[in-house]
C-alpha cells in the first residue's frame, strides 16, 4: 500500500509540472512583446472601427409623394434631430425648413421629393401645417461625414497625442487615416512614416455625406505602423 501511494504521488508531481510548463508556454505566447503580428492586427481593426465611428452621422431619407401644388407641410413621426435637405427626383435642391416634426417644402410643381435629415444640415424654421402628401418610403443609415472627417483631421494635426489617447491606442503604435474621393480629392491625416518601419493598412469603400449635402462613395483608409 505504501508503494502505491508513492507511485501515485510521483505521477501527480509529474502531471503538475507538465501542466505548469504548458501554462507558462501559453502565457509567453499570448503576452510576449515580440508577438507583434497579433498586436498589429487587433490594433488595426480597432483603429479603423474607432475612426469610422467618430466620423459617421445618421442620415435619414424619406420619399414623399406631394398631392398638392405649392408650399406644403410634411409631418413625419419620430423624425431624427438635425436640419433637413429636400431634393426632387433629379437631385435638384428645393427650398425647405423645419420646425419639430413638420418639414416645409416649396414643392415647385414636383410630385415626388426626397427629404434628408442629418445633424450635418442646418435649416430655417417652418410655419406650415400638414398638407396633402403620402409618405412612400423611409430609410435610416450611418454614413461618413466630410465635416467630421475634417474635424478629426484638424485634431490629428493639432493634438495627435490627445487623439491617440482618446482612441486608447497602444503607446508603441502610430496611426493615420485618409479618405480618397472618386474625383481625385482627398482628406489626409497621416504623419511622415520612417522608412525602416513595416506599415499596415486597411481600406473600405463607404458612403460619405459631403459638406454641401450631396452623397457619394469613396475609400476610407487607416494606416498603422
Describe the overall structure:
The structure is a single chain. The chain has 4 helices and 12 strands; from the N terminus they run ααββββββββααββββ. By secondary structure, it is an alpha+beta fold. The protein has 2 domains: 35-55 and 145-224, no CATH class; 58-142, no CATH class. The strands form 2 sheets. A 9-stranded mixed beta sheet has the order 4-3-7-1-8-11-12-9-10, with helices on one face. Strands 2-6-5 form a 3-stranded antiparallel beta sheet, with no helix packed on it. A hairpin with a 4-residue loop joins strand 3 and strand 4. Helix 3 (146-158) packs across helix 4 (160-166). The N and C termini lie far apart (64 Å).
Name the structural class: alpha+beta
Q: What's the end-to-end separation, in Å?
A: 64 Å
Largest sheet: 9 strands, mixed
Q: In total, how many beta strands?
A: 12
Total domain units? 2
- Give average pLDDT, whole number: 88
Indicate the radius of gyration in whole angstroms.
28 Å
Helices, by number, come to 4
Note poorly predicted spans. 26-32
